[in-house]
Design goal:
The protein is α+β, with helices and mostly antiparallel strands and 250 residues long. It contains twelve helices and eight strands. It is globular and about 55 Å long.
Length: 250
């Protein structure tokens, strides 16, 4: 099949490329043929193509225009530190490390300035497709350049890899975080730093039809990528069994 039939590429200004795949079955082909230096990129899956690349704390501030991001962030973390008193006996090594506390909160339902990313585009695809019955016609996998974050974008973004071993989910998912330092989403930040004719790709936006969910999840399950492996706890086992119940031959 001709490449043009497998996917449609749309060059977006400021170092961004958007690709719409005709089907999930071309995802691997796209990674192999287009993303040459995969080691430079980290990936994130989102279930709705309209969602911006921005963390929950920024969404909160945007829904409350009178809020100032820095003020809200500092007060929110202070409240979290106070709220977890008496519940951190095994976390003495991180209680005074703000980034580690944000990471702890991120995987326990706290609104934070962090976004989860993974080194595996297939794990990112799983998170894009794992939930059924979403309203979006497309699920999205993003790939952002680590080099761009660490060099040109460091006033707005930073990479963070937690060093403590309290979060087995993060380890299982090959995960790390991108930390936001202001209220701009990723695309707005790229527009701020790069000219419209920037040729080097800083951000991949890969759209895959939502109707391919079962095909995608069956393929990823054959790679041992599922809730049971990504969430090594009772919650993960439960969601894995629910998925197996709802998808034939999963």
């Amino acid at each position: 099949m001709a490449r043009t039939a497998r996917w449609k590429k749309e060059d977006v200004p400021h170092g961004i490329i958007r690709v719409t795949l005709a089907s999930w079955k071309y995802f691997h082909d796209y990674l192999e043929e287009i993303i040459i230096d995969k080691k430079n990129y980290i990936f994130r899956g989102q279930e709705d193509e309209l969602w911006k690349l921005e963390p929950t704390l920024i969404r909160h501030c945007k829904s409350n225009p009178e809020s100032k991001f820095d003020t809200v962030m500092n007060e929110h973390l202070s409240n979290f530190k106070f709220a977890i008193r008496g519940r951190t006996n095994n976390l003495k090594d991180i209680i005074n490390d703000d980034d580690e506390l944000w990471a702890l909160g991120q995987h326990n339902g706290l609104n934070t300035p962090l976004l989860d990313f993974t080194f595996s585009p297939y794990v990112a695809a799983y998170f894009a497709f794992c939930k059924p019955n979403v309203n979006s016609s497309y699920r999205v996998i993003y790939g952002i350049s680590q080099a761009a974050v660490e060099m040109q974008l460091k006033e707005d973004l930073s990479l963070y890899k937690p060093i403590s071993d309290y979060n087995v989910r993060l380890l299982s998912q090959g995960g790390m975080f991108v930390k936001f330092k202001n209220e701009n989403d990723v695309e707005a930040i790229l527009q701020k730093y790069y000219n419209a004719d920037e040729k080097k790709i800083k951000l991949f936006i890969i759209k895959i039809p939502s109707k391919n969910r079962e095909m995608c999840l069956k393929f990823l399950n054959s790679m041992n990528i599922n809730h049971n492996t990504l969430f090594p706890d009772l919650y993960g086992s439960s969601i894995y069994c629910n998925t197996k119940l709802s998808i034939k031959n999963y």
